[in-house]
Each structure stands twice: as C-alpha cells, then as structure tokens.
Amino acid sequence: MTELRLRPARTSDVPAIKDLVAPLARAGVLINKDTVAYYEGIQEFLVVEAVGDEQTGLIGCGALHVMWEDLGEVRTLATSDAWRGRGVGRTLLAGLIERARAVGVSRVFCLTFEVDFFSRYGFEVMPNQNQVDPDVFAELLRSHDEGVAEYLDLARVKPNTLGNTRMLLELSPED
Ligand SMILES: CC(=O)SCCNC(=O)CCNC(=O)[C@H](O)C(C)(C)COP(=O)(O)OP(=O)(O)OC[C@H]1O[C@@H](n2cnc3c(N)ncnc32)[C@H](O)[C@@H]1OP(=O)(O)O
Q1: Predicted ipTM?
Q2: Is 9 left (phi over 0), alpha (psi -120 to 50) or beta?
Q3: What positions does the domain N-acetyltransferase occupy (predicted)?
Q4: N or C: which end of the chain has fewer CB within 10 A?
C-alpha cells in the first residue's frame, strides 16, 4: 500500500521544490523565485512524499505566507505531473489551512488558475478589492513581497497575475 506523508519542509528539500516549481514557472502558472528565497521561506512550506509500496522523493509542495493579523496566502501549491489526481493537492491544502488556523489567520487568499480545485475547499472568487481596510492597505504597501503586491493588485505585478483569479477562504472560528 502507498501512503502520502505530509511534513514540514527541510532545507535539503529546496532542490526538489525548485524542480517541482520550474516547469510551472516556465508555463507562467507559478512565480519563479531565486534559490535564496526558498531557503528564507522554507518554514512556510509543507511537502508530500509517498511511502510504502511506492517510495518517492517529493511529489508535492505548498506554502502559507502570513500577510497580516487575519490574513494569509496559500502559494506555490504544486503536485508533480505523475501524481496529479491522487490526493496530494488536497493533503497539502488541508495542512496549510490547519497551519493558518494554528497561527491565528482567519482569511486565506490565493491567486490561481485552478478555480475549481480551490472552490472544492471553500475558497470563493473575490468580488472586489474592498476587503482590505485602508490602514492595512497602506501598511501592506510597505511590503517588498511580490505575493502581497499581487494581493493588493498593484500595477507593477499585473503581468504576473493576468488570467489568474483572486480567491478567499473565510475560516469560521468553530472549525
Ligand atoms: C495559490 C497557488 O499556489 S495557485 C497554483 C495552484 N497550482 C497549480 O496550478 C500548479 C499545477 N497544478 C497542480 O499542481 C495540481 O493540479 C493541483 C495542486 C492544483 C491539484 O493537485 P492534485 O494533487 O492533482 O489534487 P488532488 O488529487 O488532491 O485533488 C483533490 C480533488 O480535487 C479534484 N481536482 C484536482 N484538480 C482539479 C482541478 N484542476 N479542477 C477541479 N478539481 C480538481 C480531484 O479530482 C480531487 O477530487 P476528489 O476528492 O473528488 O477525488
């Protein structure tokens, strides 16, 4: 039997994470980052590997980036081609949402082409930008993070976001 093992990423996973992301970045689905950014952000990542009959290296990765007291973003969610449709993405997303709850985040943003996938887990298409308090908006503008700029829909990152859909998951306190 093959089982999926979800675990926090380690620094030694960075080359494999980069291998997962590289073809998707070339296709414009995920943002390409410098290697140093993966090491700096390694604590944001969860990874999945298969154990049991089918031993594998990393077959999926995903990260939760905290933006504000109540707001986080799921980013860099990817399953290797050979393992799509076998529960890797669902396992990662569930782990990242659990992390969001644990750290106190009540809203989780994502920017994606995979609207149907995220909809299955309660994410809804954002109707407008008015979900950001003006004071918070002003503070978030100070961030150098590209993902924050995408959340704010800033002009300088428009080429990254073309065709993507902005979605939000509201976590209820009792969940
Ligand atoms: C915020 C971001 O990171 S956006 C970027 C999202 N990532 C990408 O676009 C990268 C390319 N895509 C992928 O790597 C994968 O297709 C993912 C991550 C979107 C999904 O990963 P998978 O491992 O294939 O998903 P998984 O097998 O867990 O699917 C869970 C369920 O969603 C369904 N599903 C999977 N992909 C899709 C999809 N594109 N649309 C609708 N349903 C989907 C599956 O059928 C499954 O349904 P079930 O529970 O009824 O069996």
Answers
A1: 0.94
A2: beta
A3: 4-143
A4: N
